[in-house]
Design goal:
This protein has about 80 residues and is of the alpha+beta class. About 25% of the residues lie in helices and about 20% in strands. It is elongated and about 70 Å long.
Length: about 80
């Protein structure tokens, strides 16, 4: 069985449940909620299919937004 947490000269490191790599147990590598470290690591979390789909959807929404302030000589009407 592989240890979840190891102690090194750099400090405490935690194993990611997805990539099985050890990373320092801090907010740079893991998200936390109520003071507890969340799994998987931040890099693996960004690669989850649900996150990729959400990010792709956000990009689509940003592309179709019109600017709020149009120059005075531009109209959105087809026959203007």
């Amino acid at each position: 069985m592989v240890a979840k947490v190891i102690r090194t000269e750099l400090g405490t490191e935690r194993r990611c449940t997805k990539c099985n790599e050890y990373w320092p147990e801090d907010s740079e590598f893991f998200y936390s909620s109520n003071g507890k470290i969340q799994q998987p690591c931040k890099a693996c979390y960004c690669e989850l299919p649900s996150r990729k789909a959400r990010k792709a959807n956000q990009v689509k929404v940003q592309r179709i937004k019109l600017p709020l302030h149009l120059p005075a000589n531009i109209s959105l009407r087809a026959n203007a």
